[in-house]
């Protein structure tokens, strides 16, 4: 069944989403947040009215996770989603056991926030939800805003928005991704208490950032990869007494597969690229050398051919007859092992670049900036995201350690190269100062 029409309807998790409920733990179940920072304080009643309408346009989001004998599955929620005021750290774990819906909408001050489980969507798809919600919210407030290319809240959901696009593009006779067997270098530091999430935002002028990357002859995404690898490379030199310092530096970034395989799905359809710093000698590498090494890696790995292999590899695991007949508790064990070997273990840092927000021009009159927060990972203690809107690019670092080395050195590098950075955050693990 593809469509959710009432609470008795159910549908399968898509291929990539099946890993998350099987591998979650008390600290982690793959939650992320999309956020718009408005120019005025949020009207909760208007936001609730908007949500009441918009959730009908996105029925696959108001769902709960159910446990079957062979697989987890999703079912329509029995409760009306309610806008709540934020009162905890970002990306709090969903209470799956008590059938909490796998998304939530919150506000605080001038922020409108929506959090999702990766079981139901990815960041690129769920920004459609946030922007449609904001469109309805502004219309309720009497603002004149054109819909532009946004999904309109009055339109009926489309069948293609419900599809599992991994299944659609799976080629059973195609090549598969080769297993990679290494453990990446990870930043070390004193762990925060369970549930504490450190969030640091850095806002820069997009035009200056683009000028910096273009002067180096690379794209913005490639330049950021180079800077992060350079920062991690310098930190690793001071970890010489730790066996962790012998491990390779690898920066992983997510990719919206809709750019390579046409799809209108509002569910998960993302891939990832692990860019490994290839060190050719024992001498210290310069930034330019590291940048060019990371650019070469990225361009070789970020191809449609490799993403096709990724889809084939993931889907063939699900289609394996031994996996299909195994009860869920056996699948959970197999997926935990697979996730450990082929996910966080392979990357020193995970980044997501949402690029420039494609929204109506009038949004700039009411929205100051966008933010994306990827919740803490299972094994990796740091993530970074990038959002651009109205000549403002926001870098967001999320971590579960006390050390501020990564973001401090990253922002210092940009400032040393002529890009001013304005920082904010939740002050070392405490809630935001409002």
SSE layout:
Layout (H helix, E strand, L loop, with lengths): L9 E3 L6 H5 L7 E8 L5 H14 L5 E5 L4 E5 L7 E2 L17 E6 L2 E7 L5 H18 L24 H5 L28 E8 H10 L4 H18 L12 E7 L13 E7 L10 H15 L2 H16 L1 H5 L2 H15 L6 E8 L10 E8 L7 E8 L2 E8 L5 H12 L5 E4 L9
Helix pairs in contact: 2-3, 5-6, 6-7, 6-11
Description:
With about 425 residues, the protein is α+β, with helices and mostly antiparallel strands. The chain is built from eleven helices and 15 strands. The chain has helices at about 20-25, 45-55, 125-140, 165-170, 205-215, 220-235, 285-300, 305-320, 320-325, 330-340, 405-415; strands at about 10, 30-40, 65, 70-75, 85, 105-110, 110-115, 200-205, 250-255, 270-275, 350-355, 365-375, 380-390, 390-400, 420-425. Strands 10-9-11-13-14-8-15 form a seven-stranded mixed β-sheet. Helix 2 crosses helix 3 (about 125-140), helix 6 (about 220-235) crosses helix 7 and helix 6 packs across helix 11 (about 405-415). The longest helix has 18 residues, at about 125-140. It is globular and about 60 Å long. The protein starts with 9 loop residues before the first strand and ends in a 9-residue tail after the last strand. The model is unreliable at about 430-434 (pLDDT under 50).
């Amino acid at each position: 069944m593809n469509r959710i029409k009432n609470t008795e309807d159910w549908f399968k998790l898509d291929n990539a989403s099946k890993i998350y409920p099987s591998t979650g733990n008390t600290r982690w179940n793959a939650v992320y947040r999309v956020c718009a920072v408005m120019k005025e304080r949020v009207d909760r009643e208007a936001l609730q009215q908007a949500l009441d309408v918009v959730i009908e346009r996105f029925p696959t989001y108001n769902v709960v996770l159910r446990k079957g004998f062979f697989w987890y599955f999703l079912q329509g929620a029995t409760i009306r989603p309610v806008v709540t005021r934020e009162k905890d750290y970002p990306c709090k774990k969903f209470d799956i056991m008590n059938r909490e819906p796998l998304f939530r909408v919150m506000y605080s001050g001038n922020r409108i926030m929506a959090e999702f489980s990766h079981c139901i969507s990815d960041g690129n798809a769920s920004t459609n939800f946030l922007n449609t919600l904001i469109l309805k919210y502004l219309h309720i407030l009497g603002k004149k805003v054109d819909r532009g290319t946004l999904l309109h809240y009055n339109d009926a959901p489309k069948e293609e928005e419900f599809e599992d696009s991994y299944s659609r593009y799976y080629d059973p006779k195609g090549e598969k991704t080769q297993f990679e067997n290494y453990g990446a270098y990870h930043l070390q530091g004193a762990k925060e208490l369970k549930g504490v999430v450190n969030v640091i935002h850095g806002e820069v002028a997009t035009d200056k950032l683009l000028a910096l990357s273009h002067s180096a002859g690379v794209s913005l995404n490639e330049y950021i990869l180079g800077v992060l690898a350079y920062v991690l490379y310098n930190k690793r030199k001071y970890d010489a007494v730790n066996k962790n310092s012998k491990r390779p530096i690898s920066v992983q970034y997510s990719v919206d597969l809709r750019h390579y395989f046409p799809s209108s799905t509002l569910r998960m359809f993302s891939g990832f690229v692990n860019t490994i710093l290839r060190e050719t000698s024992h001498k210290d590498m310069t930034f330019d050398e590291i940048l060019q090494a990371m650019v070469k890696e990225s361009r070789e790995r970020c191809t449609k051919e490799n993403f096709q292999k990724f889809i084939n590899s993931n889907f063939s695991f699900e289609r394996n007859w031994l996996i299909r007949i195994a009860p869920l508790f056996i699948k959970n064990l197999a997926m935990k092992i697979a996730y450990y070997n082929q996910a966080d273990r392979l990357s020193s840092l995970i980044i997501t670049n949402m690029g420039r927000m494609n929204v109506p021009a009038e949004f700039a009159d009411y929205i100051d900036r966008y933010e994306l927060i990827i919740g803490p990972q299972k094994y990796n203690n740091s993530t970074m995201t990038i959002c651009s809107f109205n000549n403002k690019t926001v870098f967001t670092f999320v971590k579960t350690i006390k050390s501020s080395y990564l973001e401090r050195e990253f922002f210092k590098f940009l400032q040393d190269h002529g890009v001013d950075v304005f920082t904010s955050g939740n002050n070392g693990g405490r809630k935001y100062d409002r």
